[in-house]
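Predict the 3D structure for this chain.
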Amino acid sequence: MKKLLLVTLLLFVMVFSFGEKIKVEFWHAMGGGHGKALEELVAAFNRENPYVEVVPVYVGNYGALSRKLLSTVVAYNEGTRDNLPVIAQAYSNWTSKYLQSEGIVEPLNKFIYGDSEFKEVWENQIYKVFKDMCTWGDTIYSIPFNKSVYTNYYNVDLFDLYGVEPPKTLDELYDVAKQLTEDIDGDGQIDQYGLGFRTTVDDFQTFLYAMNGRVLDYAGNGKWKIVLNKETTIKALNFMHKLKADEVAFVQGGYLNDPFGNGQIAMYMGTIAGKPYVEKSIKGKYEWTWAPLPSVDGVPHSPIAGTDLIMFAWADKAQKQAAWMFMKFLLDKVNQAYWAVNTGYVPVRKDVVETSQWKSYIANDEKPTIALNSLKTAVPDPKPAAWYDIRNALGTITSDFLYDKITAEDAYNRMIEEIKNLLVENEELAE
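Done. Predicted structure below.
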């Protein structure tokens, strides 16, 4: 640790002597309030570290960031060395894609384990589910950044009016959805659905995980094993279809914050990142909160959403050290509390609950604690390079099934075929 600090100090003294700051360009997709919170953290870091200038560059949404990063990696491999970021947000499957080329993503083990104080934080304070998403074999290639879990959004006023509790099991989910579904004005059309869900891969995964199903397991050496069980998959699909066919659930492809806000649905399962949109849609018309996701065993098996931060190997030595300082700064306990309080994302380290900021945050609001508790049994997404395309394929198949274009068995067979083909195409399928 002393050697690392000495090298860092010498680098900064040398840079300062020549009158130049170490510039660290940071590409991200945080807009709106999230972007403002990020800019505040960057400004605080730059004030505390006058020899470094972290320059945040808002690229656009995740799709735009993904395209720009991939084109940058391709251009770098072809010899272009201009306009390169030092760090960036990245989903773990993006990182897997970059790892297919040598010399793109910087391993972080030497930074993490070269600092005894931070090593203790990494090993004992960062949630395991996040570390799993940042690690390939024995190598750590990223740190967790903006993370969210899925919870059950529900209308407290309606639940109280009907005398029902948030469902803990899938049987209870169906029963509560049925109780809360009504043709209120008697015109033969349902005005209030007990549940809403989307025809997307995210909702399919939520129901699949609720039944203890999984899609892929890591087999080592960059290879993945397909573990999508036929019986469980068909059961999850049929349960979704029954909710729709029995007209106890409102189903669409788009986001559900507006139907929830206008009272068209009484509950839905979604990521906590949707909180500001729900608040905007509700406009204080009624009380709402979160509950843990229901499942077959009554234990929430929440998917994890959100990105990590990666460092690029093409940066020079001083930039890498400065970038690590910033990454470490973002993982500081107090800064994690600031980030969580101001964005709604979950903190990625356990001891944030000890901070005064967090204690004030939860004093009159149970929602952050509900979300944080879900991490104990949360499920990380698989991270093959093919995962983005796999997700798209599974989403299309789920939608086709729900709208009666194919049978559940056809859906399962298509899922297996698509997953296999995409893994083979990326040379990621385990033998």
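DSSP finds 19 helices and 13 strands in the chain.
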